[in-house]
Amino acid sequence: MTLTYPPLDRDGAEPLWMQLMRALRAEIESGERGPDRPLPSEAELSDLFGVSRTVVREALRELVQQRLIYKVKGKGAFVAPRKTELRFVGSTSGSADDLRESGRRVTTQTIRQTLGEADEREAALLRIPQGEQVVRLRRLRRVDGQPWLLVETALPARLVPGLERVVLENQSLYDTLRRRYGIEPAAADRWIEAVFPSREDAALLEVSTSTPLLGIESVAWLEDNTRFEAYHALHRSDQTRFYVGIR
Amino acid sequence: MTLTYPPLDRDGAEPLWMQLMRALRAEIESGERGPDRPLPSEAELSDLFGVSRTVVREALRELVQQRLIYKVKGKGAFVAPRKTELRFVGSTSGSADDLRESGRRVTTQTIRQTLGEADEREAALLRIPQGEQVVRLRRLRRVDGQPWLLVETALPARLVPGLERVVLENQSLYDTLRRRYGIEPAAADRWIEAVFPSREDAALLEVSTSTPLLGIESVAWLEDNTRFEAYHALHRSDQTRFYVGIR
DNA sequence: GGTGCCGACTTGTCATTACAGGCCTGTAGT
DNA sequence: ACTACAGGCCTGTAATGACAAGTCGGCACC
């Protein structure tokens, strides 16, 4: 038994593959198909929706990229089990709360908070035109008095008007984003590398310039794919380790 | 003036789009095309290499996904002004498959493979008594010939009898665990820090002892919470970055 | 009862064709 | 000098057809 699908809109407002992708995604996320259950074959989907296999494959490709399904040659396409998802504990979002819970004293000091124009890197990460207004935050987070994390954040000013004047001292940025601007982070990409700090960053973190640190670059977005935050952070990992849980 | 390209191999050993992708990537990474310089148009590439536009688009799609190029509708495809990055997907499965998928040549060399007694650290991570038999693997993974990852794995011998005699050369460890022992990873904890390598490890990874590396410690377990694997790994992140997707 | 092989079904790869729609430039008209 | 627009680029979308290659069940054979 399969569902009846609403017909796809052929007015060209949106590509057929995108509409099909959304229809399949809705079905998967609603839980109607359990993990590792097969999707209809490409030929079947092609018939069901009245589109070519090209469109079906384009839609499935997108779902594979989003890790909602996986494909096995010769067998079919299957719903990806949610357990392969990954959660970052110990990121800027929520890390303060986690640490506080474990009885540590977390303080966050705002070093700089300005309005400016997006440079090339920021524009690319946030997917906005170079020169568009962004709010920049430079903050130092301490755990039990020890410098732990130095983070520079850029947010499109359009999404967070007036943020450059909000007093964040010891407040969670994500709390502010949520309460003041209704921003709900949906997902993020992060890149991690081991780096040496600049002289200035080393001083703030109270380490020497030859101490290896974790450098983290990140871009986060909303449900509708709008990029709302780009940051790069330096992490002292000599006393506190960076934890990743995979479930 | 364009280069002359070696003809693509049509023996079906490798898909045409992958060969083309590699050829273009080599050109980009060698720096012959500067950032934001255009690639030949799809039609031109199609002629140059004697393949259909389908193949060209497949190759370009992969390069876009690897963030080596970006495309602008109506204009063309351009070299992305970024450093190369390797995708590490934070799933319980190994990274080798993901890398292979993106057309990198992944080779894994087993340096040591022995049966021994669990030391204190291993016993704690695996939750077994100290002194219980464990199989230890020390492996060096290369990506496109470059040393990339040095990993030391310990598994309780009870769960993987005879593993110390299985030839793993270029085989995925997780594949072997699955097929030979029916081991299905359910979840894992990982800790990441920035560290310097020992003299021996530095030599294997072909870096100096003052190169900061990513150190990763991990323990993985089955659905029933049995710990089956503990490892610690050293990652070169100077040329390639460590990627984590959060969904 | 086991084994091997065939055929049906699946996804992967590739070619070809067509048109829509964005980008840019040259040119004709003002 | 300026504008409007046509036409030639480009990528995006879509249909269709073909074959390769992996999976799996069933059937015939031993």
Q: Helical percent range of chain A?
A: 25-40%
**Average pLDDT figure of chain A:** 79
The number of helical segments of chain A is: 7
- Biggest interface, and residues per chain? A-B, 35 and 32 residues
Organism (chains A, B): Microbispora cellulosiformans
Pfam family, one (chains A, B): GntR
InterPro entries (chains A, B): Bact_HTH_transcr_reg, Chorismate_lyase_/UTRA_dom_sf, Tscrpt_reg_HTH_GntR, UTRA, WH-like_DNA-bd_sf, WH_DNA-bd_sf
Protein name (chains A, B): GntR family transcriptional regulator
Features:
homodimer, 247 residues, alpha+beta, Arc Repressor Mutant, subunit A, Chorismate lyase, six-stranded antiparallel sheet, two-stranded antiparallel ribbon, 7 helices, elongated, DNA-binding
Structure in words:
Two copies of one chain form a homodimer. With 247 residues, chain A is of the alpha+beta class. Chain A has two domains: 66 residues, Arc Repressor Mutant, subunit A, CATH 1.10.10; 161 residues, Chorismate lyase-like (Chorismate lyase), CATH 3.40.1410. Helices cover 28% and strands 31% of the residues of chain A. Chain A is built from seven helices and ten strands. A six-stranded antiparallel beta sheet of chain A has the order 4-5-6-9-8-7. A two-stranded antiparallel sheet of chain A has the order 1-2. In chain A, strand 5 and strand 6 form a beta hairpin. In chain A, helix 1 packs across helix 3 and helix 2 crosses helix 3. The first copy, chain A, starts with 15 loop residues before the first helix and ends with a strand. The relative contact order of chain A is 0.12. Chains A and B meet through strand 3, strand 7 and strand 10 of A and strand 6 and strand 9 of B. Chain A binds a DNA duplex (30 and 30 nucleotides) through helix 3.
